[in-house]
Design brief:
Helix content: 40-55%
Shape: globular
Main location: endoplasmic reticulum
Catalytic activity: a catechol + S-adenosyl-L-methionine = a guaiacol + S-adenosyl-L-homocysteine + H(+)
Largest sheet: 7 strands, mixed
Strand order of the largest sheet: 3-2-1-4-5-7-6
GO molecular function, one term: catechol O-methyltransferase activity
Distance between the termini: 67 Å
Structural class: alpha/beta
EC number: 2.1.1.6
Radius of gyration: 20 Å
Family: Belongs to the class I-like SAM-binding methyltransferase superfamily. Cation-dependent O-methyltransferase family.
């Protein structure tokens, strides 16, 4: 039995920890506890609930309406780790610059981690006519939701092709199975432990050309230290990390890495 005096002695420490890590407690509550309760009550996955909300509140074919509705759901209803609007602006700026400076057409994009299709829609709306996105998602349930959201936004299979397979199986076969000769942009937002192995697969595939850009989200939180260490030490990239906070949760520091491929020396 702990005496009241000992309990009181630890109270300031406990309060300090709660204050210091309050945003992480909020994340735990929103991302885990609320999700678990609503999974049990509704019998639907979190991703399916997000789609139902978008379907009833957004305007079909209006990309901005769909993104705004998605952002509202993620910030006010339930948490989903999308790239979010703030980092999404940097994302859009990079795509716009790529579209204007690219010397060849069409632009080819590889997305690793479709999830619900939020970032796919963001990418697609910033690309010129004739561009093509290969979006890879290994979870079949998430892929079904993403397919609905992408098509609801007005992007057909000629622009966005959804590939439901693990990324490490897709990357080595992009040239053979999909006729890809060069990747202009790669966006990584899947399992963080896969960032480095998938980057190395891309390096060995011959699909990265001088000026190809790799954007990788959440490199600070949850973090991808081995990926960043390799990118900085390999001599293959110009590396920048755009500091931000975790999407939809203020107070948790995060960042998105931007790697520009310099070519094999």
């Amino acid at each position: 039995m702990v005496s009241p005096a000992i309990a009181l002695a630890f109270l300031p420490l406990l309060l300090t920890l709660i204050i210091r890590y309050r945003y992480f407690f909020v994340l735990l509550y929103r991302a885990v506890l609320i999700r678990w309760v609503r999974d049990c009550l509704t019998g639907l996955s979190r991703e399916e609930r997000a789609f139902q909300y978008i379907l009833t509140h957004a305007t079909p074919g209006d990309v901005q309406s769909i993104l705004d509705t998605f952002d509202h759901w993620c910030s006010k209803v339930e948490f989903i780790s999308n790239i979010g609007p703030k980092k999404g602006h940097k994302h859009t700026h990079t795509l716009t610059h790529l579209s204007s400076s690219c010397e060849h057409c069409p632009i080819t994009v590889l997305e690793l981690g479709t999830h619900c299709g939020y970032s796919t829609v963001r990418i697609a709306r910033s690309l010129p006519i004739g561009a093509r996105i290969y979006s890879v998602e290994m979870d079949e349930g998430n892929a079904r939701v993403a397919e609905k959201i992408i098509r609801l936004a007005g992007f057909d299979e000629d622009m966005v092709e959804l590939i439901v397979r693990p990324s490490d199986e897709v990357i080595p076969r992009l040239r053979e199975d999909f006729g890809v000769e060069r990747l202009d942009l790669v966006f990584m937002d899947h399992w963080k432990r896969c960032y480095l192995p998938d980057l190395q697969l891309l390096e060995g595939s011959g699909l990265l050309g001088e000026g190809s850009i790799i954007l990788a989200d959440n490199v600070i939180f949850p973090g991808a230290p081995n990926f960043l260490r390799h990118a900085r030490s390999s001599g293959l990239y110009e590396v920048r990390v755009h500091r931000a906070t975790l999407e939809y949760i203020r107070g948790i520091r995060d960042g998105m890495a931007e790697l520009t491929f310099l070519g094999i020396k």
